Amino acid sequence: MKLSRKISLLSAVACGMMVAHGAPHAHAAHGSTDPADEKARQVLAHMSLEDKMSLLFSVDGGGFNGSVAPPGGLGSAAYLRAPAGSGLPDLQISDAGLGVRNPAHIRKDGAAVSLPSGLSTASSWDMDMARQAGAMIGREAWQQGFNVLLGGGADLTRDPRGGRNFEYAGEDPLQTGRMVGSTIAGVQSQHVISTLKHYAMNDLETSRMTMSADIDPVAMRESDLLGFEIAIETGHPGSVMCAYNRVNDLYACESPYLLTKTLKQDWHYPGFVMSDWGATHSSARAALAGLDQESAGDHADARPYFRTLLAADVKAGRVPQSRIDDMAQRIVRSLFAQGLVDHPPVRAPLDVVTDTLVAQRDEEEGAVLLRNEGNILPLAPTARIAVIGGHADVGVISGGGSSQVDPIGGEVVKGPGKKDWPGDPVYFPSSPLKAMRAEAPAAHITYDPGTNIAAAVRAARAADVAVVYATQFTFEGMDAPNMHLDGNADALIAAVAAANPRTVVVMETGDPVLMPWNGSVAGVLEAWFPGSGGGTAIARLLFGKVAPSGHLTMTFPQAESQLAHPDIAGVNANNVFEMQFHTDQELVYDEGSDVGYRWFDRNHLKPLYPFGYGLTYTTFATDGLVAGYHHKQLTVTFNVRNTGTRPGVDVPQVYVGLPDGGARRLAGWQRVKLAPGESRQVSVQVDPRLLAHFDGKHDRWDIPSGRFRVWLGHSAMDDSQQVSVHLSGRTLAP
Ligand code: GLC
């Protein structure tokens, strides 16, 4: 029997498949005294069944394969007209997690400010920054008239070639849950529902519409699902978007285990589940599994599942009215809970200067300094600097797909005119070159496009320092076929470094990349997709106006052969459309919960740069590591000191190892800003789930008895300080 079949049977048994056959559903409102639930009950008490059912599906909002905005719609991913007389707002539903999208440029005033990639926000390890970033895009959505933002991508980056990793937060469930949950909280502080997505296991783009992600349910609870669980606890998203793919053979939007058993029963999630666009495949089966709203089904789905077929299911008794009532209750309670009813959007011009500054600071905190030999950085303000490549003279690159934002100021790089999805790469008009010249007016800074290597080499030879900008364009719908930088970047960097070893590489990438020239250059700054304020952020980092403080949330491998799945079947499809619809593709995630750095730890592999790694312009020392267990809480205490000559931010990380000797797990961290010579004592409380294994038979977390190891370090590979602590076993309260 195929492993996936075994897992699906296991998960079917473990997950109470009876839910799909009419067993009691996870009713949010039952007994809830939450004011939002009470208000929703009052509104729905006067609503006909027909009106309730009109809440269960949105329509295409325009821009989808040339569609136009529906009457009442603003022009976005989807629109839902509220029942007349209900007092509820229409739902104006917009993408996405990096800023307000304007699909197919459908709105003439649809440009907005873009955050840097989600990987950048996550690499700041700063939950407050993530919250501010979310508040900025939530405010812009509200000012443009939207009340639902499809942001909050929390899929773990199981593969460093993932086409949408730039929208996500990285390898670790704790870090992902807290960082994405904080962004969601920020969005919702602006009375806009944020949508946690793509639930679950949408960790690759190849065959995303049809593939089955097969994983032991226990391992899934300890990894991908733990990330979603913590994001929900941290950000309380008004909605969750179920993913395209299958999980253990069942479509995510038809999985009782995911949607009802885990999300609504175990986690007591009170909000609603919307489908991804084209991820609804049935009416009764999906509704009974726990799907609450079909998204843009008029254009995205094969049949009018929730638009008309569901009514027939209710009439025929295949779906009880109580399920319809629960679906409507969940949707309406979220409208009240997130302030959509009491605080409808008030159209206003965007505060572009303020919002761009938020994006800039996000990038300043999220860029990761990987290499700084001979302290080549920060650059001298009077140096002769050769800036080369990456369209650095005009802007910074961004990721493609439904998270793409239209740049304010227009696009600055004319691409080859790619017609099929997602079109040409979009550059934001935030020029690193112009920003560098503004930051260092006394420096002599030249620019070479990098298209002719010989010319670039001449420019490098004539300078004190060469700064090469290199890009890797990634986008929704396709995974990176390899881990190389775009175009001739590897050859260009190697040639420039050979001509002038005082070379700094600034990488604008959607993913970790291979760096064959790494030993030949002096400095490397990973800037991810830098966002609308990216050029200024990069310049300020290079000249030391702000010190880098980012730390990796994804492992940079030495080679693809180190990965848990070196080959992605079908990744070299001829086009994106074919790529997404490979049939019967299944990927058995037999690494289980050992994602990323845990895989490297378990297999004693040495990456190029480890999870948690990042340099700055000063140095830090930590000591005094103590692990104390009181009142069932493990608290790790230590001292951090700035041992350098510049102020800086450190992010010491706490990892734990369970008695069974499995891979180490991130258990907490602290972001500490210190002046030269300053020291501080820090305490980190460990989430007990990181000390436990999930017991799939009893649906609970069990902390085993025995000796736990505790590491304090600056990456997942840092063994310099560790202590052990003995814990007696216990079961965590649900
Ligand atoms: C897309 C994406 C999802 C997005 C939705 C609406 O296919 O998977 O993230 O929010 O459709 O554009």
Characterization of this structure:
The chain is α/β, with parallel strands linked by helices. The chain has 3 domains: 3-337, Glycoside hydrolase, family 3, N-terminal domain (TIM Barrel, Alpha-Beta Barrel), CATH 3.20.20; 356-542, Glycoside hydrolase family 3 C-terminal domain (Rossmann fold); 620-731, Immunoglobulins (Immunoglobulin-like). Helix content is 27%, strand content 19%. It has a 7-stranded mixed beta sheet. A hairpin with a 4-residue loop joins strand 27 (693-695) and strand 28 (700-703). The longest helix has 17 residues, at 127-143. It is globular, with a radius of gyration of 25 Å. The two termini are 34 Å apart. The structure holds alpha-D-glucopyranose. Residues 77, 95-96, 150, 197-198, 276-277, 402 line the site of alpha-D-glucopyranose.
List the helices and strands and how they pair.
Blueprint: H1 3-14, H2 35-45, H3 49-54, E1 59-60, E2 78-80, E3 91-94, H4 118-123, H5 127-143, E4 148-149, H6 173-188, E5 193-199, E6 212-214, H7 217-221, H8 224-235, E7 239-242, E8 246-247, E9 250-251, H9 256-266, E10 272-275, H10 284-289, H11 297-300, H12 305-315, H13 321-337, H14 352-366, E11 368-372, E12 384-388, E13 396-397, E14 427-428, H15 432-439, E15 444-448, H16 453-461, E16 465-472, H17 489-499, E17 503-509, E18 523-526, H18 534-542, H19 576-580, E19 586-588, H20 597-602, E20 620-630, E21 633-642, E22 648-650, E23 653-657, E24 665-669, E25 672-674, E26 679-685, E27 693-695, E28 700-703, E29 706-713, E30 721-727, E31 730-731
Parallel strand pairs: 3-4, 4-5, 5-7, 6-8, 6-19, 7-10, 12-15, 12-16, 16-17, 17-18
Antiparallel strand pairs: 1-2, 2-3, 8-9, 11-18, 13-14, 20-21, 21-26, 22-25, 23-24, 23-29, 27-28, 28-31, 29-30
Helix pairs in contact: 2-13, 5-6, 5-14, 6-8, 14-18, 15-18, 16-17
The structure holds alpha-D-glucopyranose.
